[in-house]
Amino acid sequence: MRVLVIEDDPGVSHFLVQGLSEEGHDVDLVEDGEAGERRLRSGEYDVAVLDVLLPRRDGYEVCRRIRNAGVGVPILMLTARDAVTDRVRGLNVGADDYLIKPFAFDELLARLEALVRRGPSRPEASLISHGPIQVDTESHTVTVHGKEVRLSATEYRLLEYLVKRAGSIVSRDQLAEHVWGGDYDPFSNVADVYISYLRKKVDKDRKRPLIHTVRGLGYMLKDGAAPDT
Questions:
Q1: For the whole model, what pTM was predicted?
Q2: Is 61 found in the same domain as 153?
């Protein structure tokens, strides 16, 4: 399984990465909440180990934000806090399991394997959002600043994917797979055309755009200054 470890304590992170790697698993490590959220949004992991006390964004907030974005990767939350209220808070923001430090590696491994067998979490909320954009994944409707924006089916799929990956660069190959189902000529400009359509509907009344082109890499949905290229 492919595991993302989000932990800033060097002793704990080394213990986890070494142990999981020795069990034959593919492990990536990040050491702050913002970086962890970006990785979780990528959809590349089977399961994640998420510490609560992290720099830049705590584990509760990371979990809440990715669940609101519709990301279902199973999450095992780690913490030194053993109060019932802390465990309940972790589960309420979308964690699938909770383990208190210090813990036995065999127990952690067994819990991760159980989460992977169970499969992705199914967030109850159908609404995902970024900045002024809100997407209802059940009704396939989109609002910007509370006003409904009418999109074609392809425009909707494109925007939904960008919102789910907000803050991350999305390549044309990723769009080909997730928006056009792989039926996409890499030499075609169809992605640029549909990005242009979206901009006219989503960014038309904004001084600072939400949808950015990252030259040579792809596109990014970001509420703020354009990314450096």
A1: 0.57
A2: no
